[in-house]
Every structure is written in C-alpha cells, then in structure tokens.
Amino acid sequence: MGAHETKTFRSGNSVALRLPKSLAIGPDERMLIEQNGDVLTVRRLKDPAEEKRKLMELVKTLRSIGRLGEIQKREPIEFPRRPGL
Predict the structure, then answer these.
(1) Which of 25, 39, 55, 59 has the fewest CB atoms within 10 Å, i.e. is most exposed?
(2) Residue 43 parent element (H or E)
(3) Domain count, the chain
C-alpha cells in the first residue's frame, strides 16, 4: 500500500494513467473504476465463473469433513476478583 505519484497522458482520444511497477497489474485485466467526488477507486473485476468454481470447491471440501459430533461442555471459567480494574 501507500501513495504513489504519477501523471496522466493522452492515448488516442483517451487520457491514460501510468501505474508504477510496484502496483503490478498485468496487461488485459478487466478493471472497475468508480468515482466518488474527486476520488477514483480502481479494482480488478472478478470472473464470476472462477469465483463460483472456488466456492463450489470450498463447499465440496467442507462436505468431505463430515458432520460435527456432539459439542462437549466445559467447566465455567472463574475470573479472579480484581478491585479497581
């Protein structure tokens, strides 16, 4: 994280912004740009199919663990009396 200073430049009929190498966004990535006043927020768009695949993989892994057994009860914790705290 941190702040980086850069300049805009003209690219055809558009104005472009060169990102510093340290931000490492690859070419041809889909991005979302949101504007709120003078603040621009840029973030990668996630592929819905890939996100669904990851979620389904997680569900499969969790189901393979099986159901939990009975939850064991434990003795209540007694906290010491500490006057003045």
Answers:
(1) 39
(2) strand 39-44
(3) 1
Residues of the chain above pLDDT 90, percent: 44
Is residue 63 packed enough to be buried (19+ CB in 10 Å), middle (13-18) or exposed (0-12)?
Answer: exposed
**pLDDT tens-digit readout, 25-52:** 888 888 999 999 999 998 989 889 999 9
Residue with tokens 């990102």: 19
CA distances from 37 to 15, 19, 20, 40 (A): 18, 21, 24, 8
- Residue 21 above 90 pLDDT? no
Residue 61 pLDDT = 94
For residue 46, the enclosing domain spans 28-65
Tell me whether residue 82 is in a domain.
no
Residue 36 resides in a domain: yes
Instruction: Flag whether 38 is in a domain.
Output: yes
Question: Residues 20, 6: contact at Cβ < 8 Å?
Answer: yes
